[in-house]
Design a protein that fits this description.
GO cellular component, one term: cytosol
CATH class of the largest domain: Alpha Beta
InterPro entries: G_TrmE, GTP-bd, GTPase_MnmE, MnmE_dom2, MnmE_helical, P-loop_NTPase, Small_GTP-bd
GO molecular function, one term: GTP binding
Structural class: alpha/beta
Number of strands: 6
Shape: elongated
Pfam families: MMR_HSR1 (PF01926), MnmE_helical (PF12631)
Number of domains: 2
Keywords: tRNA processing
Distance between the termini: 12 Å
CATH superfamily of the largest domain: P-loop containing nucleotide triphosphate hydrolases
Length: 358
């Protein structure tokens, strides 16, 4: 019987594909929706590999010149123009950082974009979760604090997988169990890419909303202000309350406010469209997306080596020290595609994740 990943391993060993393409085969098999499928196909077709090869070629050329200087060190000959090398290192660092930065998007697409639903108790968070899935996922009650722990489920919208997380209502409480739920809610928001913050102009104050948003905010979070229960307030409309909320939060924290009724299922299509548009906007047009944690670690390591080279150039370090950091950067980039010797344990880990044969 064929071993797990045997045929893909043979293709890799015979030079039919590089290691990143082989890993993309596993990602393609495991993909559950169109967005993840597209990322895997792009990588399997060699888009990522081509970018890495271009980076390595430029580095190899300059490393060769630096190391050539070592052979003529006694003659004080400089083959590599330091200004050109500095410019090259700057450009390579920027490109590698761009690839590394795409990992947060790639991982979110691969595993499902985490969307936290938060707000005060009885904001309608559980009702919204149930309405999005069109089934009873969470207990709904008029009693505040019913949700004590986070409830998660996955929903695919237009080929993109979202992980919706219904969290405990945010408030100060002396109830020990509820306090644990509130702490977990805040933790879930910290790990989310999108936050749907539910409020209602008749039940919340500007000060409460702004204070909670500022406490929950983090760099990678996209915030949607969602006024719920608009069926009780004559629909979503401009008012001094909404104007003040926009003045306090627009720009620094969000650009989006929308009205819905979870109970009446009003405005849910518009909310879903906003979610899809936001994820599509996360990916810069024409860029490669990194979704593999091994690749991300290698890119970070390569970038750190190039930072050492840049610092060495500023300090006018000798060629042998520069060459060492350049070789390390080359090794890290080459480890992604398998252009350097790859440890058998790493190969075993990669191909062992395949299903039988593939």
């Amino acid at each position: 019987m064929a071993e797990a990943g045997e045929f893909t391993l043979r293709a890799y060993m015979n030079g039919k594909m590089d290691l990143s393409q082989a890993e993309a085969v596993a990602d393609l098999i495991a993909s559950e929706h169109k967005a993840a499928h597209d990322i895997a196909m792009q990588q399997m077709r060699g888009g990522f590999s081509d970018e890495l090869k271009a980076l390595r070629t430029q580095l190899i050329d300059f490393t060769a010149l630096i190391e050539l200087e070592l052979d003529f060190s006694e003659e004080d000959v400089e083959f590599a123009n330091r200004e050109q090398l500095n410019e090259l290192i700057h450009n390579l660092k920027r490109k590698i950082q761009s690839l590394a930065d795409s990992f947060s998007y790639g991982q979110a697409i691969k595993e499902g974009v985490p969307v936290a639903i938060a707000g005060k108790p009885n904001a309608g968070k559980s009702t919204l979760l149930n309405a999005l899935f069109n089934e009873e996922k969470a207990i709904v009650s008029d009693i505040a604090g019913t949700t004590r722990d986070a409830i998660e489920d996955v929903l695919t919208l237009e080929g993109i997988k979202f992980r919706f997380i219904d969290t405990a209502g945010l408030r100060d409480t002396t109830d020990e169990i509820e306090a644990i739920g509130v702490a977990r809610a805040k933790e879930k928001v910290q790990n989310a890419r999108i936050l749907l913050y539910l409020f209602n102009r008749e039940e919340d104050t500007i000060e409460e909303i702004v204070a909670q948003i500022k406490a929950l905010h983090h760099e990678n979070l996209t915030l949607f202000l969602v006024e719920n229960k608009i069926d009780r307030s004559g629909g979503f409309h401009a008012s001094p309350f909404i104007n003040q909320l926009q003045e306090a939060l627009f720009g620094a924290y969000t650009q989006t406010i929308i009205g819905i009724s979870s109970l009446e299922k009003t405005g849910l299509d518009a909310l879903k469209n906003l979610l899809v548009q936001e994820v599509e906007a996360m990916k810069l047009t024409g860029t490669t997306v990194v979704s593999n944690s091994r690749h991300k670690a290698a890119l970070d390591a390569a970038n750190n080596s190039l930072i050492q080279v840049a610092q060495g150039l500023q300090m006018n370090l000798s060629g042998d020290l520069l060459a060492q950091d350049l070789r390390e950067a080359l090794a890290h980039i080459g480890s992604i595609t398998g252009e350097i010797d790859v440890d058998e344990d790493i190969l075993g880990s990669i191909f062992g994740k395949f299903c039988i044969g593939k």
